[in-house]
Amino acid sequence: MKRIPYLAALFAAASLFTASLSVHAQDAVPAGAAVQDDRVVITGGGSLLPVNNPPNGSGFYNLAWNPGGTKLAYIFSDTEFVSHIAVTDASATDPIVLDTGALEAGFPVSWTPDGQILYVGSGDFTDTSKPYTSELKRIAPEAGAVPEVIGSFEMGTGCGGGSPFPSDWVYWEEAGFGGNALVLRWTDYGILHSSNCGGSSLKLFAPQGGEDTPLVGDNYLEPVEGEPQFAVGRAVLSGDGKTLVAVRSTYNADGPVTSLVLIDLSTRELTDVTTTAQPEQVAWLADGSVLYSTRTTTGSLNAGLTDEQKTNFESIFGTSEFDVPAYEVAIHHLNPATGEDSQLYTAPASVIGRMQIAPDGQSLLFSQIANLDQWVLGIADGTLDIMADNDGSAQRALVPVTLYRLPFAGGEATVIAENLAQFRLKP
Description:
The structure is a single chain. A hairpin with a 6-residue loop joins strand 23 (325-334) and strand 24. This protein has a single domain (5-425), classed as TolB, C-terminal domain (Neuraminidase, 6 Propeller), CATH 2.120.10.30. By secondary structure, it is mostly beta strands. The protein has helices at 166-175, 307-317, 373-381, 393-396, and strands spanning 20-24, 32-36, 39-44, 47-50, 60-65, 71-77, 83-89, 96-97, 110-111, 117-121, 133-139, 148-154, 184-187, 190-193, 203-205, 212-214, 229-237, 243-252, 255-264, 270-273, 282-284, 290-300, 325-334, 341-348, 351-357, 363-369, 401-407, 412-418, 421-425.
């Protein structure tokens, strides 16, 4: 997938879980969709069916199956870097590009109960006399369809920044900018959505009446003097559609500290959940228990370089104090009712990107982004010229994203595929 590195942001009880930590032979790719080599592909049945998309400027994002698994919607940008929504079917026929109007950056596409595509349209930045608002819209997944405006909401903007690390670029594609994917989901209690570009300030919009009700009063973008800054995001809806599991980030002088919370959509009550480690990404199991990933710094990947290699690093980054962190990842199983928290998996890697429960409920599928060992070595040995890597492709090639399956009833984590990004299981 093409990228401009610094603009990448724009875009069952515990006893059953006895999986080994080793990785063995390749597993079959389940039915779903993914992005591979700058193509959307439909997977399953032992094949990869590429979708014949038009030329694009910066790749494909936010793949979303309809509930029946018959249609796939996604966002792509054209060669002028204008974003569009496209839809294809499970046979990878030529996609339909919908006439949606301008899209709000960062939001995914979703589906309404009546089979329309739910999305967020951008507002008017030129009128500074009133708060900036975004529009909730829906459109039929067919050629010539006309979008319908459901309502609008105030949207916090101004998020920016980037990273020199290609592992972050891959992570942000897997899990949203900074790991904080914006939320957009039709629920029985209203349309669940983020209301700022940082992926937090969760709200419920009522299609009937237009009321937009905050679920959490976070204050990260508008700090309150004397109070800690915090934000709640990375929210995932339970299978019964009633409860969110989410990650709260509380900011202090040393950076964010994350914790787990549950939010009841009917009462809007927030419950703190104790974990044995700081959560990164989350997922639900059918029995109401939760999986969460963690990320722990274990050292510096460039600490052991020779003096000559360190000189190469300094020539690129302008300082010999530039550290490239090494990480270890883990996946935990937590029963919120009992507090039992067990570690299922651990490995040296940069981060877990996304976690999905297999349709039969017997295993976890997750993407894992590698540490930057090869990137560091390439710069240190002079074989990688990041200043000449304008689209980031040479650097990204040194940071593979690997799709794994972790069975719940014992066994070993197995590799499903390499270079199969943004994987979305077919319902």
